[in-house]
Amino acid sequence: MLSLENISLELEVEERIVSILNDVNLNFEAGKMYALTGPNGSGKSSVARVAMGIYKQTGGRVLYNGEDITELGISERARKGIGYAFQHPARFKGMPVKDMLELAFKHSDGYNCKVLRDIGLCPDDYLERTLDNSLSGGEIKRIEIATLLALNPKVRIFDEPEAGIDLWSFEQLIDVIGNSHRKDTTTVVISHQEKILNMVDEIVLIEKGTVSMRGSRDEIWPQIKESAECSCRKNCRLEEDIYADCPR
Amino acid sequence: MLTALDKKLLQEIADLHGEPPGAFNIRKDGEGIERRSLEGIEIIPKKDQPGIDVIVAPGKEGTVHIPVILTETDLSDLVYNKIEIGEEANITLVAGCGIHNPGKGNAQHDGVHEIIVRKGARLVYTEKHFGEGEGGGKRVLNPKTVLVVEEGAYAELELIQIRGVDETARVTEAEVMAGGRLVMYERLLTDKEQTAESDVLVKLMAEESTARIVSRSVAQGSSSQKFYPRLLAFGPGRGHVECDSIIMDQATVRSVPEIWAENSEAELVHEAAIGKIAGEQLIKLMSLGLTEEEAEEAIISGFLK
Ligand SMILES: Nc1ncnc2c1ncn2[C@@H]1O[C@H](COP(=O)(O)OP(=O)(O)OP(=O)(O)O)[C@@H](O)[C@H]1O
Ligand SMILES: [Mg+2]
């Protein structure tokens, strides 16, 4: 459905060219769920941004159902069916939540209420709220997810949807993402959460700007878990006194 | 009789479809053309100068419309209105001016409003400006509002000018007495060669006087805007000024807020910002399928809401 071929990305940072992604090859099929995981700064959000057309790759191609969309901008890709829920959602002075949801879903109010309820926000309390700094981090994050659910694109990329969401709602969030997944949609979830990694068909590990491992949950999960645990144990041992009650 | 054009202007500035409900006065091309007083809300034309007195009796609740429309070119209309809201009354007052200038000359309306909100009363005042016309003549509006918010009273001013007014210089002066509260929202959009200037002076006179001034503007084309919101506390009052402008194209925006305290218990804050539309906002809306232009429009209309 969506493929990234030999994608490289360089960005200019303070007059220096920095390599962010390097020879990334990924193929996301219809009907499947994927998780992108990997250390902070490894390039997961950058992969999503290249797919959405926000970052223009330095090399490589992006294909959507076989069509070369490398040269298409954000709006055109959105209209073809690619959607992205941002890791750090933008805030808008003055714009009500209702208007944002209506831009995503141009039909009845009823549906807007449904997507808000799905992610655990009471529509009566939130439809008229403005998307500015008066919303908490968790609230704005939920609304971002609701917006992508309202848009309901063929390819859905959720960037760390669990970030800032309380534990209780986390289960509900997983259910909503899982239940809204269809045979003809592709769901990509960027996440560090075990529960999310457990629910997908395939896990992609991104490290240092490239795909370092990919495969089924059963193949990949034990290895990620091991490497995560190792580094934690090491840290705990280094400062044994402070981290005496390290949960791992 | 109101013509179709009159009705359109009235709808733009006062959201009116035909004759207003409640008490009203409609002024067209320099003359009062229709008027209705109600028990407790009297509208009386001034004898010695153009304009009206609106006198609301104590405790009265209701809505008053006093729109002004201009439909001729080469017309300069000057009007003095006095509005008195009696103690404990609760009134929504819709003013505003709509100009359709058909010719090459200027069409200008300068309104002076003197408003007194008596003890414990509540006033929500909306003033919307609108201009149009194909002749190339200028639409000019220079409103001056002088407001007194008495002890324990509440006044909310909503001043809106979106498109079509070529020149405007607005002066707003307010005195807020002990326990009085003033909230002022200003929304402004200028385009092309338009100019807009807004001068606000709010005086917090005594203890528990509070004021909040929120000004949002968008400057497009080669237009220019100047804001001088000033907040002065003589007593232990609290005030907040917030000026936020989106600047586009070749426009110019100057924002000069001033806070001035004469009492060590006063708390005054000002925030002012000018900047272009944030890239991340555009990107978000484009990722929903909007074009860049549609995204800009949605952001601006939300910002000016
Ligand atoms: N616009 C940018 N300007 C400068 N550097 C950038 C930019 N975008 C990304 N980077 C850099 O690229 C690298 C990858 O960033 P990216 O946001 O893709 O990481 P990530 O894997 O999503 O990390 P996290 O888990 O923290 O969200 C980081 O080193 C980051 O600092
Ligand atoms: Mg990221």
What does this protein look like?
The complex is a heterodimer of chains A (248) and B (305). Chain A is α/β, with parallel strands linked by helices and 248 residues long. Chain A has a single domain (2-243), classed as P-loop containing nucleotide triphosphate hydrolases (Rossmann fold). Chain A is built from 9 helices and 10 strands. In chain A, helix 3 (97-104) packs parallel to helix 6 and helix 4 packs across helix 6 (137-151). The mean pLDDT of chain A is 88. Helix content of chain B is 10%, strand content 55%. Chain B is built from 3 helices and 23 strands. Chain B has helices at 4-14, 279-286, 292-303; strands spanning 23-28, 31-36, 41-45, 52-56, 61-65, 68-70, 75-85, 90-94, 97-100, 107-117, 122-132, 139-141, 144-149, 154-162, 167-176, 181-190, 195-204, 210-219, 224-233, 238-247, 252-255, 258-261, 267-275. In chain B, the strands form 2 sheets. In chain B, strands 3, 4, 7, 10, 12, 13, 15, 17, 19, 21 and 22 form an 11-stranded mixed beta sheet that branches. Chain B has a 6-stranded parallel β-barrel with strand order 1-5-8-11-9-6. The radius of gyration of chain B is 20 Å and the shape is globular. Chain B starts with a helix and ends with a helix. In chain B, 48% of the residues are buried. Classes of the chains: A alpha/beta (248), B mainly beta (305). Chain A binds chain B through residues 52, 54, 73-75, 78-79, 83-84, 86, 89-90, 92-96, 99, 103-104, 130, 147, 151, and chain B through 216, 244, 278, 280-281, 283-292, 298-299, 302-305. The structure holds adenosine-5'-triphosphate (ATP) and magnesium ion. Adenosine-5'-triphosphate is lined by residues 11, 13, 20, 38, 40-46, 87 of chain A. Residues 11, 13, 20, 38, 40-46, 87 of chain A line the site of adenosine-5'-triphosphate (ATP).
